[in-house]
Amino acid sequence: MSVPEAATLHAPDAVLLGFARALRASGVAVTADRERTYLEAVAAVGLMDPSGVYWAGQATLCSSPADLERYDQVYAAWFGLERAGTRPRQETSPTLTMAPLEGDQGSGETQEQEEDAVHAQASATEVLRHRDIATLGSAERARLAALFAALRPRAPRRRAHRPTPAARGVVDARRTLRDQLRRMGEPGPIAWRRRGTRPRRVVLLVDVSGSMSPYADALLRLSHTYAATGLPVEVFTLGTRLTHVTRPLRQRDPERALVACGNSVPDWSGGTRLAQGIKVFLDRWGRRGMARGAVVVVFSDGWEREAPEALGEQMRRLRALAHRVVWVNPHRGKTGYEPVQQGIVAALPHIDDFVAGHSMAAFEELVEVVARA
Predict the structure, then answer these.
(1) CB atoms within 10 A of CB 30
(2) Which of 277, 298, 307 lies closest to 351 in space, CA to CA?
(3) What's the pTM?
């Protein structure tokens, strides 16, 4: 629906304010002053000019370059216009097809066309799975977000401390004797026991600095996929500070969870202080038990503002506590990549698995790496 069509169905102010509030719900900091300025700007350019309405909203409602992509997504969903806002989508009229009669020769051709359409859609999805997330447009990112629902994260297993009854294993002498006492000394079946398994904790440390901004949304969606399953998972964001975001990511709805997470993180697209962030995690949470025996996954490209030796020292401490350390680098899966950044060079000796994190296919492989840890 274009802006002029929407205005004929509803009051213009209600349509525009609804768009501003939808933009705020997506994570853009839209204040009441910005809403008022937006209405004044649209009144100046006129509702009949879709391009003017688009640029008026971008100029008044967005406060940083990081807001532009979400603005494009919400604008396209609300008004049904293309990203640039200069031309409406080409309207297509529905095509009516008659059901073929029995013995109609055209039924085979129709079936072949439907099969071709299914194969084409499957092929497009497969291509999207291997595309670099940083190169995707708004529509492709929306399609990619739907693919996260197909992921099935599994927590790695560890041996439980207490044995449990089992059909075979080690003889449980205590249970066997108690059963014989209840039988007044008569022999009975032998009780067995064995040590079971329990899910091992998974800790996700997600770098949300400026260099990781093209991948931050996808990485947090992956973190939400883990957190919403009810597994023993803890999620933190790393930037200029460390932020614990497990609680907002526990929500089932991914969009609400990401908005709540965005409201909790104060250092989006800022600098990187990996060593300081990991140190705070270890001092406040890790040594108290959260990192002990856990699988810790660090999502970062390795760019570090501080001395790389400090990052190496904190990674050494982390490796001493954790069961396994996995480092996910979005550049790892690109052709010609070499781990030459000083931060990566300092961290590599303390990493068990160094994997890619630039596409949905890479995320699927990561899920298997974590489950096998």
Answers:
(1) 24
(2) 298
(3) 0.64
